[in-house]
Design goal:
Number of strands: 15
Number of helices: 15
Number of domains: 2
Pfam family, one: Aminotran_1_2
Shape: globular
Bound molecules: pyridoxal-5'-phosphate
Largest sheet: 7 strands, mixed
CATH topology of the largest domain: Aspartate Aminotransferase, domain 2
CATH architecture of the largest domain: 3-Layer(aba) Sandwich
Strand content: 5-15%
CATH superfamily of the largest domain: Type I PLP-dependent aspartate aminotransferase-like (Major domain)
Enzyme class: lyase
Cofactor: pyridoxal 5'-phosphate
Radius of gyration: 21 Å
Order of helices and strands: HHEHHEHEHEEEHEHEHEHEHHHEEHEEEH
Protein name: cysteine-S-conjugate beta-lyase
Helix content: 40-55%
GO molecular function: cysteine-S-conjugate beta-lyase activity; pyridoxal phosphate binding
Structural class: alpha/beta
């Protein structure tokens, strides 16, 4: 029995929620169950809510800064959960990981430079490269036995072309792969050899299923740390995306100064009062809640796998190592992406993320977010069956 109330259904309608209130704009209809955007339908831990409420009750919301205690809370968390010892001064704050990706691109590359990614991958990776006038280089992941694997020969060939920066997604969205220590060491060695910086997006790294472990690439070897910017955030882990808070951890002083100078050019100096308070409370007090959440998500994952296995033979679920995102291989249904979308919306009344959004390799897939009460998941699965059963 989970001691946290993840069963509770909380209406998010009319809260300016992207997931719940923008379905009409994005999918053209509002009668759909939204299981697309990567946030959760749960409240955060009590301690986080209380810390924000107490700050709110104070009533004066003047300029604030992130005190040392916030950096300390991040350091304690990373050491305890991932065995990574960092120093307070390595931390720079940012309103989000996507803004940090943009900052890194601007700070470390020039217009036209090559930036590497591994598709299918989180859409803003492509957008940040393109919108900043850089060139996307893609080393597409290989699908082997229903799991994504890195094609290291291709990866190395791409680095040889003179790539300046590699955007690593660990754990990987949408596939849910947590890259193993061996894989990360190979990546690190190749980036050292070809003098390529790494931006390691580790936003999903606390959402780990049993039997898996997250390795921050910067923690594996001082040479990897020298060329890495690691982005973490409390926002996926504790469902705080609306307070916009994240951290970029950079041990290499030269890189850190360049990243910070770019932030200052953009006029960014610090987080909001609520971002700082929520972030620190989550890292200090969120451990037990997170363990409860992962038990709950593990049940959701199992339910979805069983249901799909039983009722939807044309769909194959990619077993995620981490994240609350299910990457569903629908190619067995023999439908085009347009037909998939249409069936989901019209027959199923279900809003999922279309695979092609994640670049090449995403065709024929959809992404389903299972961070919701069991009851909502059951409804979502029924709708999936109505769409394709
Ligand atoms: C891999 C990845 N990076 C970054 C983000 C968003 O980060 P932020 O809201 O901090 O900009 C997401 C959200 O889905 C994500 O999946």
């Amino acid at each position: 029995m989970n001691r946290f109330n993840f069963h509770q259904k909380i209406s998010r309608e009319n809260t300016a929620s992207v997931k719940w209130d923008l379905t009409k704009d994005v999918f053209g209809r509002s009668d759909v169950l939204p299981m697309w955007v990567a946030d959760m339908d749960f409240q955060p831990p009590e301690e986080v809510k209380k810390a924000i409420e107490d700050r709110m009750a104070h009533g004066v919301y003047g300029y604030t800064y992130a005190p040392d205690s916030t950096a300390e809370s991040i350091g304690l968390w990373l050491n305890k959960r991932h065995g990574w010892k960092i120093k307070n001064e390595w931390i720079l704050y940012s309103t989000g990981v996507v803004p940090s990706i943009a900052t890194a691109i601007q700070a470390f590359t020039e217009k036209g430079d090559k930036v590497l990614l591994q598709s299918p991958v989180y859409t803003p990776f492509f957008e940040m490269i393109k919108q900043n006038g850089r060139t996307v280089v893609n080393s597409q992941l290989k699908l082997e036995n229903g799991r994504y694997e890195i094609d290291f020969a291709d990866f190395e060939n791409k680095l040889k072309e003179g790539v300046k920066l590699f955007l690593l997604c660990n754990p990987h969205n949408p596939g849910g792969r947590m890259w193993t220590e061996e894989e990360l060491r190979k990546i690190g060695e190749l980036c050292v050899t070809y003098d390529c910086l790494i931006l390691s997006d580790e936003i999903h790294s606390d959402l780990i299923y049993k039997g898996h472990k997250h390795y921050p690439i910067a923690s594996l070897d001082p040479r990897f740390a020298e060329l890495t910017v690691t982005c973490i955030a409390p926002t996926k882990t504790w469902n705080l995306a609306g307070i916009q808070a994240s951290a970029a951890i950079i041990s290499n002083e030269k890189l850190r100064k360049a990243f910070q100078a770019e932030q200052h050019k953009q006029g960014f100096f610090t987080l909001s009062a609520f971002g700082i308070i929520g972030m620190e409370a989550a890292y200090r007090h969120g451990g037990e809640w997170l363990d409860g959440l992962m038990d709950y998500l593990e049940e959701n994952k199992k339910t979805a796998a069983e249901f799909i296995g039983q009722h939807l033979p044309g769909i194959r679920l990619m077993e995620p190592d981490g994240t609350y995102l299910l990457w569903l291989d629908c190619r067995g249904l023999g439908l085009t992406d347009d037909d998939l979308r249409q069936s989901l919306l019209e027959k199923g009344k279900l809003a999922l993320e279309p695979g092609p959004k994640y670049g090449s390799g995403g065709e024929g897939f959809v992404r389903m977010n299972i961070a919701c009460p069991h009851e909502v998941l059951a409804e979502g699965l029924e709708r999936l069956k109505r769409a394709f059963g």
